[in-house]
Every structure is written in C-alpha cells, then in structure tokens.
C-alpha cells in the first residue's frame, strides 16, 4: 500500500524527522548536501507534503546520528506509515500517537472534540493538565513534558489563523475535584475566557437526558483542507486514529446528534459561570 501524505502517522513521521534535525542542530540545506539530495526534497518530507520511504528515513537518521532508541521509534513510524488505521496498545504507544495528535491539530481546518468528564486538552490550564497526569501516576519528568507540550498545543487556538474548535463537554466535568485547591476554579475561568474567542465554541452536555452517542466515550474529529478527515480516540492505555470513510461518517453523525441535544453556547457559558461561583464559595 503506498504511503499517503496527510495521514496522522505520516504527519507524525514528518514531525519526528524535523525534530530530529533541529535537535541535532543541523540546517536543512546542510543535511541535503550531506545526503546529496535537494533541499526541496528534505523540506517536502519534513512538512508532510511527501512521505519518504524507509531507506530514506534510515539514511537521514544515520546522518543525524540519532540514538538507537529514537532511531527505532522513527523507523517504526516509517515502516507502518501506509497503514490506514493507527492503533496502539499500552502506555508506551501513546507518546508516539501524541505526535500525530499535535500535527493534526496544527494542520486541521477545524476540530470537534467530545469530552464527557474533563476539559479538552486544548482548553486546559497547565495546572489542570499537571494534576491529571500526576493522578495518572506518570513519572514527574513525563508529567512536566506533557505540561510543556500542552502549552505549545494551545497555540493553534490563538495564532494569527487559528483553528476552528468546537468543544462538547459533559457538564458533570465542571464539578470534578481535580488537583489542589484552586486548580478547577482557575481552569473554569480560563474556559469561560476561551469560550469568548470567535474560533472557539463551547457547548455543555447536561446530565439526565438519557442515552446519546457520547456514551460510547470521548473522541476527536479532525477536518483538513488538504486531506481526508480523521477520528482519534484515546483511552487509559490505548488509542487509535480512524480514517476509514464509513467510520468517520458515523462519528460525524454522532457530532450532529450531540450538537442538537447539547445546551446552546450562551447557556453553556452561563452554566460555566455558575460553576465558577460554586467553586469560589468553597
């Protein structure tokens, strides 16, 4: 199966190659001269416009003198880059997929996320992210790396041409006591501020409305101008990117249903303000 540019795995591969070169401190033109390739070719690979084969990836990693562990991680991306679905099982798989998530966020034209119990990552404060990762039992070094990454991820909502983000959030999540005192309060204040941005739409899903498609679990739908849409979901120790046309269509239907039964934008903001008042009283 030929590799397709624009898929989450291909985006993760291009990001990994770009990061490996930058970490090495080598310019793209210098790398191109070293490999006797054109600068344009390197640029296409790093920007995700084209997908290098395994041999080219190995050649680049050798030139950059990448560590054996990192070399194997990137080669694994290259070997499986043509696979349409991307499923990982076990906590070790999630960081690699997280690279795909970051690249999808950076290149998406619009994002819809359904998050039944927590504030979506793009809308999280650093303290809120830290509290969640610490509660998950991650090593402190990994926790801080995730926090730093989340800070950089949020830039897609505030850059000059920001992505359109529609957050569908379970209302119950506003009242979950996450982290030390003040963490949830600061998080809700931040959520209320972000909801004022023209590119951010926040809708709350109330409790007690019976079954709806969101009961199946959290998910994200990424739409692109230059590629087919893709769905991503992540659970405790596994995650998957699903680009299959039929599956994406079903998740789009789920989004439409959730939009219909969720509280409208104005009332959602009012309920966030109500939750803020509740936390201020405690």
UniProtKB/TrEMBL annotation:
SUPFAM superfamilies found in the cross-reference section: lambda repressor-like DNA-binding domains (SSF47413)
GO MF term list: DNA binding
Superkingdom to which the source organism belongs: Bacteria
SMART domains: HTH_XRE
InterPro entries for the chain: Cro/C1-type_HTH, DUF5753, Lambda_DNA-bd_dom_sf
Residues in HTH cro/C1-type domain copies: 17-71
Protein name: Helix-turn-helix domain-containing protein
